[in-house]
Specification:
11 strands; two-stranded antiparallel sheet; Alpha-Beta Plaits; alpha+beta; 12 helices
Amino acid sequence: MGMVNTTVTLKPKDQWRAGMTLEKLQAEMDADLQFPGLPNVWTQPIRNRLDMLLTGIKTPVGIKIFGANLDEIQRLGEAIERALQRVPGTRSVYAERVAQGYFADIRINRQAIARHGLTSGDVQDVIEAAVGGQNVTKTIEGRERYPVNVRYERGFRQDLPQLERVLVRTPMGAQVPLAELAEIVLMPGPAMIRDEGGQLAGYVYVDTATRDIGGYVEAAKRAVAENVALPPGYTLQWTGQYEFQVRARERLRLLVPLVFFIIFILLYLTFHSASEAVIVMLSVVYAMTGGVILQWVLGYNFSVAVWVGYIALYGVAVQTGVVMVVYLHEALDRRLRRGGDITADDIREATIAGSVLRLRPKLMTVSVVMAGLIPIIWSTGVGADIMKPIAAPIIGGMITSTVHVLVITPVIFYIMKLRALRKGTLKVSGMA
């Protein structure tokens, strides 16, 4: 198995053809640069090195096959290769041919060498010297030392008939051809041996033409499960960039609920009311609605970058919701401190007054966030492919969050305080 790395330096984007993108460029090069036996893998130089160091796989998706027999591992790899070629989004797939090497196997005939007074060591020394070579001396050049290796010229050792004519000197001084002392045959064997976790391994490299690595892997897993039967003792491990995504997703499954819980506790300690804490956290639902809509419009799939954007959006939405509730409490507390009978109209007027006071700060917050993030959506420079998925949920969420905070939150606040008035539990919050 061989590997060729070619680095393509692109011209500045202002010199590209109209409508050309990196994805289209890769598709065109992949269509024009097809060589038998050499599948193409399109990646970035630094990412390629990192992926190779961290996972051993240089493609976006890789499959490691573990088992006890290299021939069976190769058979499974070829079956997986055929199954994945039919999966939408597969640009190229190649399974290592781990068992397709050929080696000259020299089997010494002990009876024959005994007739000539030779030992196995005598014959092996000649084979080593003739084929592999032996260091006979060193050259000394100042502080440098160079070994001098002597062996047969290539014309005397490049094929089996030539190896059979290698001469072995007997103790009696006779020169006996190696063919009379050993059987020389060409035998198949493993071209390379991978070992991970105490098991033999083979790799399948998969290059994809889709950004949704997670969705592609799910489809690929179904295709493999339907078309490839794993014998007992053989397992598959999906790796590559997909492995990073899985690790991040597992962490997010733990961290996101934990963050939600901690924020709820902080809100409860601030308002001394679980219902008001829930009101603030409801703003997240509306904020995420806008984020999902814009994400769908722009065609971004759920990824680690997108989830980072949602986490940032959640923080901003909760912050603006808290400020709105504080403004509403301050307006209502001022009315309560004046004393006298409180009516539903008083609560309504206080709610409107607090909402109006919050209008300008909320619009300023949204304007600043949008002014900072909208240019990212239109950017095409280095790192834009990572920043765009982060910015999209925040921009979409800020729009729906604004509607919720300025319209829906005051309505819910008014309903809650009106219910408290009817129950006789309406009192100053102490937040003013």
